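COMPLEX REQUEST
Ligand: benzoic acid
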Amino acid sequence: MTHDHTAPDAAAEQARREEELLVRVLRSFDDCADPRLKELMQALVRHLHAFLRDVRLTEEEWRKGIEFLTRAGHITDDVRQEFILLSDVLGASMQMITMNNRAHGDATEATVLGPFFVDDAPRIELGGDITGGAPGEPCWVEGTVRDTEGAPVPGARIEVWEADADGLYDVQRDGDRTMGRAHLFTGPDGEYRFWANTPTPYPIPDDGPVGGLLAAVGRSPMRASHLHFLVKADGYRTLVTHIFVRGDALLESDTVFGVRGSLVKEFEGHPAGAPTPDGRAIDGTWSRTRFDIVLAPTA
Ligand code: BEZ
Ligand code: FE
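STATUS: Structure written out below.
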């Protein structure tokens, strides 16, 4: 039996070349004057090269990856942000949010912002209606905003927004009618209440390369039903979160990994004709939920 002396040497030579290249690229950042930028770039290069070498990326696969990123760039504009969507479906957004909203007592957990928040949603009073006529089943939402010591936070600004029963946010519809979004302020005891629609599931924008990626890997583009909150008060960490509907079949497979068990709430259904909390007359069924919010202090 002949022994192939060249094979191990070739493998060793191959590894030496790959290592030597990596070291050269890492060193190219040595003189970076900004220490954080240097740290980020060197870590990025280390992980990127580890990935390339781990999967032994082919030139054809590299080209497909570049084409994917190019398509993501072409579809991205001031309102459509395909790179954030990519970050979302890879769980990177949620991981970053988890790291940057450190657990603090019983402070409410954060989740993804998503692309459908707008800054200038109308103000409603306590007990007002955010739907603006969007189709859906009415839902009474109430709760309090408190700090981690249990003290009420009056005057906290709460932004709320949601998709309608057709699975669309107002900004996805033609025209500029505001629907399914508003802001309000907590009362003297940190209390808040408003009418919304019972959240229903909808797909993330999946007509671009990220949608293509999800289809290629056999993943659904659906998000679990949710109602978005952004809560701001002086001296507290701004909270970006949602509440989810207990029993929703999509809780385990939310395509952006936004679900946290602590954010899943009971949405109690009521038959047509059942008296409503504020005496409003409603023809059909309606639901109600409670979300008590706890804000962490500013770090
Ligand atoms: C949303 O909930 O609005 C959303 C979040 C992440 C990606 C797409 C949509
Ligand atoms: Fe959403």
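REMARKS: The chain has two domains: 10-57, 82-295. The pocket of benzoic acid (ligand 1) is lined by residues 85, 88, 112, 114-116, 204, 223, 256 (CB under 6 Å).
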